[in-house]
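call fold(seq) -> tokens
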Amino acid sequence: MTKNHQEALERINFRFKYGIGTVRDYGTVKDFERFCLIDRRLSTDSAVHYANTVFRLLVHAGKPLKSLTKDDIRDFLALFSNTHT
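ret:
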């Protein structure tokens, strides 16, 4: 993992831990978690993991769900692209 990726992950973890950011979509994230549990029949651990990942994306982007762009998602996913190599 590069230094830039590590710094970005630390920033996300800090924002996540302390609730810093413009995340107003908590209800939507919880609805997504319920969708994963009920409609997709995923385990509780999987549903929570997916919902947390979406929440971290929103915190990382620092903008509401409806304002996210493909580039915001790509930037977020790039943080994890080399973690398993």
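The first helix runs from residue 3 to 18.
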